[in-house]
Amino acid sequence: MSGPILGVSGLTKRFGGFVATDNVTMDVRPGEVHALIGPNGAGKTTLIAQLVGELRQDAGAITLEGRDIGTLPTATRIGLGLARTFQITCLLPEYTVLDNVAVAVQIRQGHSFRFWGDARREMPLRQAALGFLGNIGLAARADERVANLSHGEQKELELAVALATKPRLLLLDEPMAGLGHAESRRMVDLLTGLKHRVGMLLVEHDMDAVFALADRISVLVYGRIIASGTAEEIRDNPEVRAAYLGEGDELC
């Protein structure tokens, strides 16, 4: 397709007199990584919640591949190709690595979660799940309980689960959160390998990762987009530098 995967136009959300997202307009193009950055309290979490359907916007539109999804429930948005990873991993810790991905494959095929037991027994589901684990480098850990994985491995597994839904757009909510240097480097490498295959909206505080991955960056401050552009343009933008320095952060 020639148009954006994700389109956001005039998105506004108020909580009483507080404007959490203020006329936000942005898009994600096919195959690109568009990073969304901003100081703490900028409104990033509220924006993501609106995109996935956890919060209903007060004004504005959200489109996925040109279709208006702004009034659709979360499950329907996922079915249309939206997938999300979380700052804090959202997995089934007492089940195996393979089980977690198999149930995502099952859901993508249109089955209800109540048939969860089938995902643990059906060989086609498990073979498909093993393929996604292989792509992420976790095939050797397939039979391990999720609770036994390191934090970095759980982050990688969550990415495999998201990919198993065959998304058109990945919403990556701080994938580097809590990772050490080596784990962050591996996550950057994994996401680099996905570039041009799936559109990604990356919300991240790790500026090294942002500058390594992003084709475009948008900066959210007090609910408003104050700048959008390439990494070089954002790094040299005086308004962006002032916003970060005012929060004690630095642009690397």
Provide an overview of this structure.
The structure is a single chain. The protein has 252 residues and is of the alpha/beta class. The chain has a domain at 6-81 and 167-245: 3-Layer(aba) Sandwich (Rossmann fold). The protein contains 10 helices and 10 strands. It has a 6-stranded mixed β-sheet with strand order 6-7-8-3-9-10, sandwiched between helices. The longest helix has 14 residues, at 123-136. The protein is globular, with a radius of gyration of 18 Å.
Describe the secondary-structure layout.
Layout: E1 6-15, E2 18-28, E3 33-37, H1 44-52, E4 59-64, E5 67-68, H2 74-79, E6 82-85, H3 97-108, H4 116-121, H5 123-136, H6 151-164, E7 169-173, H7 181-194, E8 199-203, H8 207-213, E9 216-221, E10 224-229, H9 231-235, H10 238-245
Parallel strand pairs: 3-8, 3-9, 6-7, 7-8
Antiparallel strand pairs: 1-2, 1-4, 4-5, 9-10
Helix pairs in contact: 3-5, 3-6, 5-6
Highest CATH level, the class of the domain at 6-81 and 167-245: Alpha Beta
Largest sheet: 6 strands, mixed
Query: Which fold name fills CATH's third level, the topology of the domain at 6-81 and 167-245?
Result: Rossmann fold
Name the shape in a single word: globular
> Mean pLDDT across all residues, rounded?
89
